[in-house]
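To: structure subgroup
Subject: Chain for Friday's discussion

All,

I'm putting the inputs and outputs inline so they're searchable in the archive.
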Amino acid sequence: MMSEFTASCFPLWDEWFPEEPIGQGSAGTVSRIRRSTPEGVEYAALKQITISADTGNFRYARAQGMDAGCIRYFFRAVLDETMQEIDMMKQLSGCPNIVHLEDSLSREISGQGQDATSDSVSGWMVFIRMELLTPFIDRMTEDLFSPAEICRVGMDLCSALDACRQARIVHRDVKPENIFWQKETGAFKLGDFGFAHYMERPTEEKGRAGTLTHMSPEIYAGSPADYAGDLYALGIILYRLLNDNRIPFLPQYPGLFTPQDRNLALLRRLRGENPPLPAAAVYAADLSCAATGLGMSFSDRQRPAIAELAQIARKAVLADPAARFRSAKEMRAALKAVAESHLL
């Protein structure tokens, strides 16, 4: 159930009413909402974020020399940054491959910090209304991607990254959890442009370079996050789709691995070792094989497409930035050539 506070905010959006929660993360909850129109019922997603010392941050703030006034000032800055990043995402809503953000608002709340001797510390609730989509991670775990769909994933997200570059915006955290799928059109969309940053533990310092499983070696080594890093992260996603969803350097499916094996696989890539071709290239080269390890079937006519997709994915994640694709446009053109030559 959505909280009474959440429901009380809906008059600000007139006809929208809450339904069931559909997601829960460290930064807040996502729920489905609905409204009735002359054409029928419409649905949207509501992301609700709490910015408050009452969510477990008060002790950490006090341990860093903050009093109640300083804590309020600090969390107000977190709110301002969050709203700025929401505005940034609104700028990109015209791109069909970026999640469309429809509206947002913030509302002040008040509460008592966890320390019983503390003064009352205010916080904020942030509400973000956006189009209702299917999480990409659900597709990865529930459905198998065909070679044509893998091309579509890459082309759509290249379009999203090109729009980001034109707007001079670096996403910093391209990964499956931040990608969504529109069932009606088949489009894949990039979302979550960092406005959840600092929400899990705002009073602890965290870098903004992204997630290790999709981070480029140069960013891991200390270079700032940039467009090339976003494109590299997309390359890791394509590599995984062609590698039975596994990151580079893990045993080929169905081989077993431990947490230590996974950490070593990460370090090999992050320290500059070039990954091998994804497993799909091995399957496609074996004329007696007609499916990947996870069961994605393919025809003989599609073997060249899989082989070329594997080469594209590997090129996108080479250790040397100069050896990769120079831009999202270039990578999209390579993917489009595969689709037009072998999959249409």
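Points worth raising on Friday:
The longest strand covers residues 40-51.
Strands lie at 17-25, 28-37, 40-51, 101-112, 120-130, 134-135, 179-182, 187-190.

D.
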